[in-house]
């Protein structure tokens, strides 16, 4: 399975939640998949690497399978500025399957506030 790609911006020093879901469209109807067992979000930049998962509490999972990362202001401020951060969102199943379902670049912008 080829991962979907999406680039986005994060304002450094903000704490805006990011939500992800795996959905399929069949006969015009969209269904969100909630069959996976855990999710991992990895972000890598120059001299920077973080990993969040549903297992360690860094990501939360809703009943419908939506994954949410609620970063702190300190976490987003630690992202390097610019379009230099790559990320992958991976879903894992108890049978050992692991799928990278979303990948792309995070552009760290701003971050002048000092809170």
Question: How would you explain this protein's 3D organization?
Answer:
The chain has a single domain, classed as Immunoglobulin-like (Sandwich), CATH 2.60.40. The radius of gyration is 15 Å and the shape is elongated. Helix content is 4%, strand content 51%. It has one helix at 73-77, and strands at 4-5, 8-11, 18-20, 23-26, 29-32, 38-45, 48-53, 60-61, 67-69, 82-92, 98-109. Strands 1, 2, 6, 7, 10 and 11 form a six-stranded mixed sheet that branches. The protein has 115 residues and is mainly β. The longest helix is centred in the middle third of the chain and has 5 residues, at 73-77. The model has no long low-confidence stretch (mean pLDDT 90).
């Amino acid at each position: 399975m080829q991962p979907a790609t999406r680039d986005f911006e994060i304002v450094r020093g903000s704490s805006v939640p990011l939500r992800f879901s795996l959905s399929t469209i069949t006969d015009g109807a969209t269904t969100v998949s909630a069959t996976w067992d855990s999710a991992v979000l990895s972000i890598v930049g120059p001299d920077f690497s973080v990993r969040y998962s549903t297992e360690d509490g860094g990501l939360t999972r809703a009943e419908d399978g939506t994954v949410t990362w609620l970063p702190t202001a300190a976490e987003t401020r630690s992202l390097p500025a610019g379009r230099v951060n790559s990320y992958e969102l991976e879903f894992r199943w108890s049978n050992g399957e692991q799928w990278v379902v979303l990948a792309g670049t995070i552009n760290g912008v701003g971050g002048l506030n000092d809170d």
